[in-house]
Amino acid sequence: MNRRLILTALAAASFVAVTGCAGPYTVSADVSSYGNWPAGRNTGTYAFDRLPSQQQSDEASKRQDALEKAAATGLERAGFKPAADPKTADVLVTLGARITAYDPVPWDDPLWWRWRGRLISPRYGYAAGWGWRQDPFFDRRYDRAVAVLLRDRASGEALFETHASNEGMTVGGETMIGALFDAAMADFPKIEPKPHRVSVQVVR
Asked: Which has more confidence, 106 or 122?
């Protein structure tokens, strides 16, 4: 399998927009969560905490701006509010995102001929026998994934970590990344390390 990492962080300016009819639609993702959010603790206020690599240049900062914008809705739906002053926030939020392009090969799927193969027959002027014809446009797929880490600002203790991912035929766009963040935070503060399917509605 030929795998190629095309993005290690969100680059909103280069994302391909999600296409389709206007109106609400559903996005599904595999979600895993870890940690131990204290029982009885309120969500409170949050501020984003950037890693050195996420602020090393103007370009990196712009990518992180877009990532934080995409994650804000999911955080606020979970009950968090942005802090007026980051120094007084209850929790610090670290974000990550990646998109990986890969080219499936026929033997990935025992029924590869049904979706990814084109049978060629001498009846239609091809060489004798049945064979495999590569179709790069339909073969290329994308793994899309996001991660959220919540830490107590005062102590630095990691309280909650969550990951969400899905795959599709396009890079996905800002809307898709935002939906993945929504899915990642949908079950907060419930902890479920085993990957499970979460669906969220997106209103375009």
From this structure: 106
CA distances 132 to 3, 20, 105, 145, Å, are 21, 31, 11, 32
Q: Spell out where 36-118 has E strands.
A: 45-48, 81-82, 91-103
Q: What is the pLDDT of residues 33-60, one digit of tens each?
A: 999 999 999 999 999 999 999 999 998 8
d(CA 55, CA 59) in angstroms, rounded, equals 8
Contact 39, 167 (CB under 8 A): no
CA 193 to chain centre: 17
Instruction: State residue 184's pLDDT score.
Output: 98
80-87 contacts: CB < 8 A, separation 24 or more?
Answer: 80/43, 80/44, 80/45, 80/46, 81/43, 81/44, 81/45, 81/46, 82/45, 82/46, 82/47, 83/45, 83/46, 83/47, 84/45, 86/47, 86/48
Task: Give the whole-angstrom CA distance, residue 167 versus residue 133.
Answer: 23
In this structure, CATH architecture of domain 2-106+140-202: 2-Layer Sandwich (3.30)
10 Å CB burial of residue 78 (0-12, 13-18, 19+) is buried
Contact 46, 90 (CB under 8 A): yes
Cβ atoms 134, 2 nearer than 8 A: no
Residue with tokens 């991660």, as numbered in its chain: 147
The answer to whether the pTM exceeds 0.90 is no
